[in-house]
Amino acid sequence: MKKLNLLLLAALAVITFGCKDDDNGPDNPLPEPTPSNQVVVQGNITSNTTWESGKTYLLKGKIYVQSPAVLTIPAGTKIFGDKASQATLIINRGAKIMAEGTASSPIIFTSNAPVGYRNRGDWGGIVILGKATNNKSTDVTIEGVTGTSGDDGKHGGSDDADNSGKLKFVRIEFAGIPLADDNELNSLTMGSVGSGTEISNVMVSYANDDAFEWFGGTVNASYLIATSTWDDDFDTDLGYRGKVQFGYIQRDPDFADKSGSRAFECSGNKDNAAATPASAPKFANVTVAGPLVYTNYSSTSNYNGNYRAAIEMNEGTRVEIYNSLIMGFPTSAQYNTSSAAGAVVLSDIFFIHNGTTSLSGTNANATTTNLTFGGNGLAIANSLVDLYAGVDTAKANRKNNATATASALNFTNPVPVLKSTSALTSGAPSLTAKGFTASPAYYGAFGSAADAGWNWTSGWINFDPINAAY
């Protein structure tokens, strides 16, 4: 009888708890259960460490890889960032990250939220720090990192060939935390990273601040993607002098930062415009699909009013941009300086369907060569149809470009290659003398096909991480 009574009590308990009101509605989802093969990572990494692709990793808090430790992450590894603790992976100068995915098996850094609940700012992002020169000091605390001790979060030095490791075939999703104005964690932040570091085939999606930001340093990069960024896509500061070739930027018209969102924000040292080395980044073969590409409009009221110029050049920058295609920003380019320290080069760029038909501001030291403005202005029909298959030609239907299956600029599954009949598939000037390793005949990031370096259809790219099953 005693045993029977215990069974009845147990059954009653099950019924009681099973009938409890559900507090976890659609706005308050249950947390994802911790998989048995998930490893929680928190605290500093002080010795050589290799993660396993057969496991997943949950980052908690700020994790510093301290010199001279090397963190090796094999292809196919999935790493999740904890939101409550603002998880951030920081590679100190003198340490290394060896994150080498493959085209078919990328390394994925993403949100720990379940499908449908992921959003910008779900974790902090990746910070890589090095010993190359910048124009502030040899001991700079990186933006977005506070309360550090020892060498944690510091960057700068005198070794422009410094090696902080490799980042290849990597996706970074839903990262970035704005701690205060001008003090944010970006999706991928680089401080004084040297040219011995290798960065290629990196995709940033749904960045909560900038997608890629370089503070000083000389690291080069190639095949970068930024989609649905909140603030700026490519942001350069404090004497960055590397080269970036092949980039694709795609902007959501509904989302922009109160500080003003741009494809390129190019700055020097805000406290000393004459500081050396001057910021002198070089970009080539970049395609920008800005907010006006994806919005129905007859006025500026149909896209976020915080969008600014596609290219903004601040005092102290000597940015150079070549052989690129920039579409759909309210302003094509904006000079915010006319000082000698602000010399820039804009060469062989097609500005298509932007809100203004010319450059804004003045810079007596700028060199502008072969700039073409086509289909610009709110009252002028666009010329996108001459460039891409399946795009809508009517301004009132432009939002279809984001969703139409046939659209080459489809927001969640783009194939942004040029029509074979487009004049932009050939005739681009040589880039060899500018120091770039490739010199394709086409303008922008793609010709009538994506070149082999993109590995566009190999699986490492995903424009819909909100619904990805990880």
Q: Can you offer a commentary on this structure?
A:
By secondary structure, the chain is mainly beta. It has a single domain, classed as Pectate Lyase C-like (3 Solenoid), CATH 2.160.20. Helices cover 4% and strands 30% of the residues. The strands form four sheets. It has a 15-stranded parallel β-sheet that branches. A hairpin with a 2-residue loop joins strand 14 and strand 15. The longest helix is centred in the first third of the chain and has 17 residues.
Flag low-confidence runs: 1-27, 378-382
The percent range for helix content is under 10%
Name of the CATH class = Mainly Beta
Mean pLDDT: 89
Instruction: Tell me the number of strands.
Output: 28
Total count of domains: 1
CATH fold annotation = Pectate Lyase C-like
Apparent shape: globular
Indicate the structural class: mainly beta
Key phrases:
nine-stranded parallel beta sheet, 470 residues, 2 helices, 15-stranded parallel beta sheet, disordered N terminus
Topology:
Elements: H1 2-18, E1 38-41, E2 49-50, E3 56-59, E4 62-65, E5 70-73, E6 78-81, E7 88-91, E8 96-100, E9 107-111, E10 125-129, E11 140-141, E12 154-155, E13 165-173, E14 177-180, E15 183-185, E16 188-191, E17 198-205, E18 212-215, E19 221-227, E20 234-237, E21 243-250, E22 264-266, E23 282-289, E24 309-313, E25 320-327, E26 331-335, E27 345-352, E28 367-374, H2 400-403
